[in-house]
Amino acid sequence: MTAPRNSLDIAKPPAATRVVAAMSGGVDSSVVAAMLQREGYEVIGVTLQLYDHGAAVHRAGSCCAGQDIHDARRVAEQIGIPHYVLDYESRFRDAVIERFAESYLSGETPIPCVECNRTVKFHDLLGLARELGADALATGHYVVGSELPNGRRGLFRAADENRDQSYFLYATTQEQLDLLRFPLGGIDKAQTRALAAELGLGIADKPDSQDICFVPNGRYADVIERLKPGAARPGDIVHLDGRVLGRHEGVLRYTVGQRKGLGLSTPEPLYVLRLDADAARVIVGPREALSIRQIRLRDLNWLGETALDALPPTGLDVAVRVRSTRPPREAKLLRDDAGLKVELATDEEGVSPGQACVIYADAGPGARVLGGGTILRPELPLPASPQGLALALS
Questions:
Q1: What percent of the chain has pLDDT over 70?
Q2: Rounded to two decimals, what is the model's pTM?
Q3: Cβ neighbours for 54, distance < 8 A, ≥ 6 positions apart
């Protein structure tokens, strides 16, 4: 006779279920650990030290800093669970920080949180959970994990659309999803804070993380220049028609779609259209030149049942997000001679290489995540000479 499912959808009583709780020191992960402990699960708290936090101990708005480790330890002591701090600095630097810097220098706008989840958190930490004999790894992410008809687990948008973190978790593999649990996916942040207060946690009013953990005050260029001294090359700011309009101090200081901070005086507003890292050029032009309908991807992670090599000729109806702050938009996923591509139902502006294109089953609330990939640089002819060559968009 099959045992009834517990609140984590595991066929065991809570007392016989071992759970590793990933504790960042914030409100969300602390509430998850405390909730599960109160429900009677055997909870083991784990915090990852991901970078040299000496300069960040007193800086609010980042995760995994010194104060956060202290807060995670204090919560674990309060609720009476074992707690371990693991030094993953070397792994994090190689897998996340170095790749972040290289991506920016190549003219992309990367998302290190996706890479961190893909490698350190949901790969290495899951490996540790298995070594500890855990039945699940629980996190404080706002996303829903539910069992599918085939017995595997699917990933879905959170109930609170304003807190939904599915965009950052698209690279989670099926094997990882089967072990992961997200207890906060069905509630909103106000309810989480209320739970923190109810549980008597001292971090109930702690501010949310805002910055990328290793980027103080959002100053990406400063971090990259420290990691790669001399790598930022100055160059020209070039209009799409070939005119040189100004100079810049490195493409890493710009992102596609940017309008402010270009340092140009022109009668019409100009936007960054492309970062030509090889030639150290920032290509600018009118807003309409930002609009695209087709996106190609690399490093695709697929969680859907339809095999990618068996897509219908007319494509698969999906919805996609090209920025974490944008809602899903209707699209088609197709295969052609060049590989997989996404065709948007309407134009999208500011699609930046290095960002993620996350694919959903539909554009509605609670939609299932089918996968996603890293956006490749869209086709855009570059000015062939610095003076007077007019080019049309393809």
A1: 91
A2: 0.90
A3: 66
